[in-house]
Amino acid sequence: MRAAYDDYGAAGRLKVSVAAWRWAVASGLVPQPDAGAEWSRAVVEAADAEGIRAALPGVVSAWWAAERVTEALGVPLPFGQPRVTATAVGHLVRAGLLTYLGGDTATPDVHPDQVATLARRRDLPALLDRHVPLGPDQAAVRLGVRRTDFDQVVRLGWITPVGPVEIDYKRHGGWTTVPLYSGQDIALLPLSRPSVDWRALHALAPGRPSPLAALDPIDPAEGDTVLLAEAARMAGVGRATVANWRRRYDDFPAPAAGTGIHPRFERSAVVAWLLAHDKIAVPAGMPSATLALRSGDTGERRFRLDDPVLELSDDAAGEDRLSGWTTDADADALAALTATDTGASLRRLTAPATPPLAVPGGVRVIERYRSGSGGLRITLAWPAGLRGTADRRPRGGTADHAVPHAAPGAQCVCARQACGGLVLVPYCIEHGRTAEPVMERHPAGGVRCTHLTRPAPRPAAALA
What we know:
It is built from 18 helices and 18 strands. It has helices at 7-14, 18-27, 41-46, 49-55, 62-73, 86-94, 112-119, 124-131, 136-143, 147-155, 183-192, 198-202, 228-235, 239-248, 267-276, 328-337, 447-453, 460-463, and strands spanning 4-5, 39-40, 163-168, 175-180, 225-226, 257-258, 263-266, 288-294, 301-311, 319-326, 344-351, 354-370, 376-383, 388-389, 400-404, 415-416, 422-423, 439-443. The radius of gyration is 30 Å and the shape is globular. The relative contact order is 0.07.
């Protein structure tokens, strides 16, 4: 009789599957190995075989798991997020985020409930960046650029492989060694290289030469160093702030080159320090905007635009513009909704660093642009004079401000706004439903608000 068992021996002794035994160990149903890397006979014979069988009703393949994790990133998949592959599931197993239950170690079988739990994690994009290396094509998608532009990034020495993988292309050349790159290093490139116009790279058309081709690669003799000013651009602060950090923190990187007046620091060391001290964070992906549109008698439809750019006009006679990456299907739907002469109504737009906006009409699609990386960018526009703050009430639409022709009296209970207007209250004695106030209305938060909050110009005599 054996004194100790490995996972195969333990599973055979209890007449359960090896996957069930491995899951029982991972879930704590049976203890960890107590005889080196194996289990003692006493532990195996004390295990509940029926409980072990019941704990694992089934396993799923790495391909199934990859599809579920990809869906969790967003449907449609956000711009700048590559699909999760079966080999990525193998990396998640090696990182301890999933339990290996059998099959090929590169594309293992896993537990469906554990996959579902992982897919629900809010930090899923960060976990993938941290633990799943990417091939060149996936890296280009993660960076949001064409493959040719990513090849230039590699040529310049801005990123180096973390390891290789052997891939069998069968009829297309047989086994080939493909370099792998850290997803986190790729995600950090727009921060660590602030002098590059990454937005322009995202929008390069097919066939256009890469602007990175004109740059010289890093000279090994000089190293990859930065001045305090570029370190400040990485963190989005002023140079004086970084100089202050250098004085305050003993672990700030020591100069690697330069002079006492203009010291230079290893770029990688500066990035690592900024991350460790929470001065920067690894970008989880492109920011996105959510917009709800309504046109005519059609119901309200919601859309997502990745990497949105919102340009607001200061002139009521001008127009506001919103652009972002979207899918072909959503671009077609947006074009159809805004095709009427009066355009569509923007019920609510939620974009980063912007208060929710609404536009009662005139929204139209003015441009569709296909980049060389395959992404589709769409631009919408509307009359700036109609733009306002979105109403918080369930009916949606634009919240109104009202400007009385006479100053409100002491009995007015309407909320006064910074623009000089009021948000009317139905039971207000002066401005409620029973009163007939004489006042001008304008969209809350719109251009009219901007004009009303501007100080009146001083008389010429006062300026003399």
